[in-house]
Protein 1
Amino acid sequence: MTTETHAFRAETRQLLDIVIHSLYSNKEIFLRELVSNASDALDRRRFEALTDGSLLTEDEELTIRLDVDPAARTLTIHDNGIGMDRDEVVANIGTIAKSGTRELMEELAKNPDSEARAELIGRFGVGFYSAFMVADRIVLVTRRAGSEVATRWESSGDGTFTLEATDRDAVGTSITLHLKPVDAENGIEDFTDFYVLRRIVKKHSDFVAYPIRADEEKEVPAPEILDDAGQPIPGEPQKVTEEVTLNSQVPIWTRNPDDVKDEEYAEFYQHISHDWSAPLDRIALRAEGRIEYRALLFLPERAPFDLYYREPNWGLRLYVRRVLILENCEELLPSYLRFVRGIVDSADLPLNISREMVQQDRHIHQMRKWLTRKVLDHLATMKKEENEKYRQLWKEFGRVLKEGTSADPDQQKRLMGLLYFASSHDSEELTDLDGYLERMKEGQEEIYYLTGESLTTVKNSPHLEAFQAKGYEVLYLTDPVDEILVQSVFEYGDKKLKSVGKGEVELGTEEEKKEAEMELSEQSKTFGDLMTRLQKLLDDTVKEVRLSTRLTTSPVCLVADEHGISPNLERLLRQTEGADLPIQKRILELNPKHELIEKLQGRFAADPVDPLLEEYAQLLLGYSLLAEGSDLPDPAAYNRLVGKLMLQAL
Ligand code: ADP
């Protein structure tokens, strides 16, 4: 039998190094991680046996066993779960395949402070590898259900691991930890002590659905032996070992919520989510009537690293009468609620329901509708009654919630009430739309917004000028998802949403509007020819040149048609692979009251074919692109013009 030595991938090695040297104080949670993995493996074996009966005989009980050898200082966690074949061991244990490892490493590199590092590792959760906090060597022996051969993996967490084929009597996995010396100050207790193990299991893994067993050594009085006179002979008490179950196995959602402590809920959440922090909030639901089920949902405190991945790992756990059917059931909630973790236990579904059946099932559809509404209602209440907590949630998951406004038209109204935006009203605090409505000025008819790449560019955009002059609030929409939001949401509370960067602007009372119109038609007479000339010069990129009613201090800006797309959306679409967009021509607006435009007009009137005009057309275009935060199509050409201008002024 050969032993192969493999090197861990660089990322895994780095992470291991951090785990081993991290100052994570709560080292006992390694046991929760290993028990959770064992419990998942047992779930999988039971699940696969539903379709292939040979994988689990009826008389085999699915269990987790903790074995200790105090003299050798080892603790072994056995399970008779699904096990792993050689390739699976390499893929699952030899590498940290988890999404987000790289991001984690980057974050860690930025954070020298040990507490912050421990917190980051906590957010990430290192599962199996957490065992290296308490062990300096780990041996894993595993045999996949359906296979005859077993695999032995061993590592001291030092950059390499070994693999060899071996034998194992039964299907399942045993993980032996060669424990570090007891060091109570650093959280390394005697993990070979029955009472220590019992306490840890009770605390972190009590609800695990399978029995977690260990041997308890008990002293029993010596058997009574009587002497000739019929008197008992005093004898030494005897030691016996007895296998006991450490966990109660009661599913937490079947208990009366009043009897369940916060910590117990937190432990359960950590068990199902593999998150190391406590949840921010929970929602316990119970439906009775035509369909009967319970749900226990959690809102995480922090966003997982893979939240925005193309294929994030999400979905609730689906149980049927307390039996786990699907680990990640994505059908139970829409994807814009993918940050919600938890379980649903149904009394009505068949036990052998398959993933395909779940997609079609009427009960599941009903549950999804109901759960979605309940979660959104819960969020609305939280926003009202525990606003600070809600804002924390918003910080982590707001962008995901916004996706719902276009993805789920049925809930659009509810969702709109949950959103927060940056706005010109307050540079620090975000605002919701109700707050905006309350602050609307008299005569203001629409909800104004501007989309853009960053807060800085949006805040400083010339498009805001007339609105600021009137004291009208403008929402700053700078998340990419905002562009999709404004494509599908047109109003809130009877007020239309309007981009300040699109279409024409008419502000103020009827009288003011009339006045502005008259003024504009006067100005058009003055600037008409100049505008035609500029239009000709910029024909490739500009579809119209007109006078602006939205500018007060800037000389020019570019605007889109009422229904055109914003430059920000255009940029985003171009970034997405394969988006081959034709150039969107926009409208160049001139501020007739600006000195620069007035002087340009003077120059043009004196000499309509002045070659300088050509350069100024390009300069004005570049100016307006930079002002809104867009890229210049030809920065070098623009710079040449500016350079020339600078020289002239000297
Ligand atoms: P996580 O559990 O968060 O996915 P881990 O590092 O704890 O990450 O485990 C990695 C993978 O190794 C698991 O997803 C599982 O596929 C496999 N694994 C771990 N422990 C066991 C076990 N006892 N039995 C079978 N597979 C296991």
Protein 2
Amino acid sequence: MRPIQAPFPATRLRRARQSPAIRALVAQSALGPGDLIWPLFVRDGEGVEEPVPSMPGVLRRSVDRVVEAAREAAALGIPAICLFPYTDAQNRTSDCAEAWNPDNLSNRATRAVKAAVPGIAVMTDVALDPYSDTGHDGFVVDGEIVNDETVAALVKQALAQAEAGVDIIGPSDMMDGRIGAIRAALEAAGHRNVCLMSYAAKYASAFYGPFRDAVGAAGALRGDKKTYQMDPANSDEALRCVARDLSEGADMVMVKPGMPYLDICRRVKDTFGAPTFAYQVSGEYAMIMAAAQAGWIDGERAMMESLIAFKRAGCDGILSYFAPDAARLLG
Ligand code: PBG
């Protein structure tokens, strides 16, 4: 049989790409400032803004400057910030007691932001690594990161954060059972409206390197986190983590890192339909910034392309160090 010769291509897919107006009409995903959570590093002092060497453009800020950043975020339409404390050696102990100190850096920053910019949602991290002399997210006993003892400490840390007024608690520790334990403790203490965003599918990743510099954990960390964070080879296990955390009372779930794990984002969204977030982590930020500074890629375009990819993969929102820059461009 002779092939049928059409006088024109039967389907001209390029018609829908011909102009900015037509492209805008057919665009399937959209990115807005409302999709972004801006992670901020908090340090001691006043009037301090200190660059993080491995993250060009990212600062460690004293509490007063964090409040300024929160104001900026609100003005840009960014709905939430996420606080990470930079702790020096003297606040790192084997009992990690600073984690549940009501006046620790993270809790002081939360109170200051909620007092000055009440409309912005404050998220905080639950894990022991900023306060531990080992740099691990849990207690270490005879070389093992012990689960249940750690969960008891995480509950105390989460309660102190709720008392300080956070809107969203983000357990990033990957211990088993911590979502249920934190949820039960929050209910018992009357904190019914505090959201839990579980770092549910968090992989043991090289892309966290610059973050560990930023929070001062790089020097402290001995060994790796592979006995509690996930193996990058696995995908089904991520679904089991998410199912478990949702059943224990998580309101939102996160996949982390982001760009190398877009397949996980899509599977999580399709399977559960729960609010799904990705964390575009420090190493992803550093890679784009480094290539842009070398003149090897267009940094702005790479940033926007990376962010829309998360929306296309099914994410409802993204934690990203690019949040203010992206929001300014979207503005
Ligand atoms: C700590 C924590 C980490 C990140 C967020 N919370 C690092 C780690 O697990 O070692 C990484 C964030 C980033 O790389 O931007 N529990």
